[in-house]
Amino acid sequence: MFWRRMRSWRKRLQLCWQEVTQIIAHILRNFRCDCGNRKFKELQCKLHPEKDEVNNLNKYSHNFFGVYCTCSRPYPDPDDQVEDEMIQCVVCEDWLHGRHLGCVVPDCVELQEMICESCMNKNPFLWTYAAHLAVPDAALQVKVETGPEDSKTNISNKEKEVDDVIEPSSKRSRAEEEPSCTLRQLQAIGQKRVQSGAVFWPSAWRSKLCSCNTCQKRLSEADLSFLLDESDTVLTYENKGKNNEQRQQGHDPLMSALDNLNRVQQLEIIHGYNDMKAELKDFLQRFAAEGKVVTSDDIRQFFEQQSRKRRRDDTGHFYCT
C-alpha cells in the first residue's frame, strides 16, 4: 500500500541522532532539522551549517513527545498486544492506529492517502469532495437523495453529473477568465456522505480538486494549499526515495572506504561496526522492556559511552607490548 506506515519509519530511525531530524524533515511537510540551532547547539548540522536560531515553521505535535494517534499512546506500545499498523494523515501528519480511524480500512493497493476525521471536520468543504471522490466505505456508504420511483435512473444521472463537473467537456469556452467553481457545482448536486470517520482517497484525487481563485484562497487560509500540489503526495515521496536508492546502489561510501584498506583493517572496521550494532540493539531493547521512550539525550549518552570506551581501548592497545 502507498500509505506512509509507522513500522517502516521506526525501522529507519535506528540511526545516529544527527540523522534522525533529517529523516523527520523528509517525512513532515515544511519541517527543518533543529541540529545546530538554539535547540541543539552542541550538534552541527550536516545539511546546513548556518542555521536560524529557531525554525518558526516547525510544528511539534504530541508525536515529538513519543505519543501518537487519538489514544496518545507510544509506539511500540508495551501495553498493547494488538497487531495494528499506523497510518499517517496527510493533513495533520499524525499517525493513527487503523482501529482508531472510525472507518473500515480498505485493502487496496491503489489507495495512497488518508485524512483523519478531525481534519475533515476542521475543513467541512472536504466532506463535499469525499462524497464524490473518496473511496466508498463499506460501513459508511454514500447516500444519494432520490425519490421512491426511478431511483436507479436518478443515481445514474447523478453519477453523470459528477463526471461532467469533475471532467468538464472540452466544448467549454476557453475564453473564460475565471473557471467555474467545481466545489460549488458538486455541492449543488446534493450527493451526501455520512460525515464520520477518516476518509481514504484514491490516486490522482488531488488533480480533481477545484483550483478557482475562491477555492485557492480557501485552501490557503486553511493551510491546505499543498493539496493542489500533486508532487506533495506520498506516492511521489516514495518513488523519489526508490529512485535515490537505485542511484546510490554501487556507491556505498562505507564500502568505498573499505576498498582502500588492507585486509586486517577491513576486518577491524567490520568487527567494530558489528559490536556497536549489537550494543545499540541491547541499549534500545532495555527501553522497550521498561516501556520507556528513547529521547535525544539517551541517544547522545549512548554514543558518548561508545566514544569513552573506544578511547580506553585505544589507550590499552598503546601500552601493549
From TrEMBL:
Pathway: Protein modification; protein ubiquitination
Gene3D superfamilies xrefs: Zinc/RING finger domain, C3HC4 (zinc finger)
Compositionally biased tracts (Basic and acidic residues): 149-177
Catalytic activity, reaction form: S-ubiquitinyl-[E2 ubiquitin-conjugating enzyme]-L-cysteine + [acceptor protein]-L-lysine = [E2 ubiquitin-conjugating enzyme]-L-cysteine + N(6)-ubiquitinyl-[acceptor protein]-L-lysine
Entry keyword Kinase: no
One GO CC annotation: cytoplasm
Region (Disordered): 146-178
GO molecular function, one term: zinc ion binding
EC numbers: 2.3.2.27
Keywords: Isopeptide bond, Metal-binding, Phosphoprotein, Transferase, Ubl conjugation, Ubl conjugation pathway, Zinc, Zinc-finger
Keyword check for Ubl conjugation: yes
InterPro entries: UBR7, Znf_FYVE_PHD, Znf_RING/FYVE/PHD
SUPFAM superfamilies reported in the protein's UniProt record: FYVE/PHD zinc finger
Function comment: E3 ubiquitin-protein ligase which is a component of the N-end rule pathway. Recognizes and binds to proteins bearing specific N-terminal residues that are destabilizing according to the N-end rule, leading to their ubiquitination and subsequent degradation.
Name recorded for this polypeptide: Putative E3 ubiquitin-protein ligase UBR7
Phylogenetic placement of the source organism: Eukaryota, Metazoa, Chordata, Craniata, Vertebrata
